[in-house]
Fold this sequence. Notes:
Elements: H1 6-14, H2 17-26, H3 31-38, H4 46-66, H5 77-86, H6 92-117, H7 133-142, E1 143-144, E2 147-148, H8 154-180, E3 191-193, E4 196-202, E5 211-216, E6 222-227, H9 228-261, H10 263-289, E7 295-297, E8 302-307, E9 320-324, E10 330-334, H11 341-356, E11 365-369, E12 373-377, H12 390-404, E13 409-413, H13 422-439, E14 442-446, H14 450-457, E15 462-470, E16 475-482, H15 490-496, H16 501-512, H17 521-532, E17 587-590, E18 595-601, E19 608-613, E20 616-621, E21 625-629, H18 631-634, H19 642-645, H20 648-659
Parallel strand pairs: 7-11, 10-14, 10-15, 12-13, 13-14
Antiparallel strand pairs: 1-2, 3-4, 4-6, 5-6, 8-9, 8-11, 15-16, 17-18, 17-21, 18-19, 19-20
Helix pairs in contact: 2-3, 2-10, 3-10, 4-10, 5-9, 5-10, 6-7, 7-9, 8-9
Amino acid sequence: MERKTDTMNHTFDAVAFTEIIEQLAEYANSPQAKEKIRNLQPYLDEGELKRNMRDTTQARQMLDLLGTPPLPVMEQIGHIVEKAVLGELLLPEEMEEVGMFLAAVRRMQSYLERGKMHHIPAAFYSDDLYPLTELKEEIERSVRHGRIDDHASGALWGIRKEIRALEEKIKDKADSLLKNNKKYMSEAFVVTRNHRLCLPVKKEYKSRVPGSVIDSSSTGATVFIEPEAVARFQDQREILLVEEDCEERKILYSLMDMIASQETSIKSNLETLAKLDFIFAKGKLSAQMEAREPSINTEGRICLKEARHPLLPPDSNVPLQFEIGGGKRGMIITGPNTGGKTVAIKTVGLFTLMAGCGLHLPCAYGDVAMRNRVLCDIGDGQNLTDNLSTFSAHITNVMDILRRATRDSLVILDELGSGTDPAEGMGIAIAILEQLRLRGCLYLVTTHYPEVKTYAGRHAELISARMAFDRENLRPLYRLEMGKTGDSCALYIAKRLGMPEDMIRTAASEAYGDGGELKKPLEKTREKTLYKTSEKPQERSQEKPLEKSPGRQWPGGLERILVPCIVPIKRKPAAAGPEEGYTRGDSVEVLPKGEIGIVVRPADQTGNVLVQVKREKRLVNQKRLKLKVRASELYPEDYDFSIVFDSVENRKARHQMERKYVGNMEVRAEE
């Protein structure tokens, strides 16, 4: 995946994809999954995108059927394992954290096993999890509540039993001395000073109590004496405490060695759980948005039905109906201010990015084209640091877009040509549209220029659309109407916002002449427009779009910035019938018994086909086979047949060997 650029960051912010990414990251538990989500960007390989989209769909299926998966928090596990491998002594609470992690692995494996019962392919990730039951049980037996348990070893049990007995003797002896020498004491209870049990003796009587002075009070009126009889017991206790510490370290080092020896399996668990965390985060976002899987195409087609922008409140979110592609590559959207044009184009841009990243879309139906770039110019773009006006910022951004745009791009331009003299702005807008048309990319443009609307009518590959406006109630309807052009309705909106009638009449007169009326300004505007153009509307250009050029410049001298291309799946022509031979994955009937099998390997030179029947592989002559269902109808194009034909042991071994070299390990091909 390519490194994220400033241009991509600008686009992500412009269409609110950054906010979607942050929402998605909140559904992940592990730092690995959160990092992967924050680096997420559209896939350029069609096969990789479709695999990731299937993962999202299958995670959503398991969430709907089985509830939330028991994914653990894994922040410190990798660090703890590294410490164990390096020989650094682990604390009991760190050991306990490893034990809890392994318990969570087992729970996650059980969750996925239930997914297998519903025949959900993503549930087979359970085969890549290692519960390490022996290590888990040893940790649980040895460590509890952040300390070494008494029963961790017989020696530790014996030492702690002796310590408890001595502590009882010390307390009984101290209480007895306190009671017998009550008149010499400043307090009626035994105290602890410097980890030693002492009697609180009045200073003037310290010679009456034999023992060692350990401490004194802040006033000096009381001295804390450890009696000689108690001191002997306490010295024995100190020796036992040292023995206890040695035995605890011995247990910890033993557990640490067990953890270090399972480094590969624990790290494999971390990788698999991080991958599942990422997949289920996408599934949770899909559930939260009530979204569904869109179709993916590489033919430049985008079709959205009942599309709801995921960041808008549901009660004010008018669903979008949108379609472009086939012979239509550009769309010119007109309509009133505050009418929803910007929301519409942002929704299309956002959905294109979401689908390109393998995310579900909140719509009734979606068919989205893979795009190598979504390039946007939305907002006023003013930059005080660079001393750019609104118009300058627009042009700077648009020039960068034109340098990068290719046939595989989606370009979104809001209020094209605005921020300068209307006549010159109109001319610049049409020049930019012409460049986009020659690129052959998909592009969406919003505008108020009537000349741009006329330009759209001269080219068959462009389609007009407008945002509907209720003139009777003077309010926008936020509904995109395809194949229609609209006016800006500025006077209507000004009236709705409180502009007096006298001012409205003055504005209409200045805009459309002395006889101008508010009712139908659009017709007059269109009449003026038709006289300005030298080309008749029915004269449509037949010029073909510009093909990809290996050069460094676009026509007109504009520098070309090279960007990556979409990589479609290499599709094999589908076989017409059994006479053209059997392919791997075909469902066949083995005659004469009528057993159902799956083709493992096509026919060899002698006409024998390797068929798997009830987990048994047989060589059967193709004359004894009858085609039931082609593999192309049963499995996706990039389906991994090792799930069907390979053993679990082989798959695990292959997984380890793909990660690193493993000595004395081999994978036998299933034939």
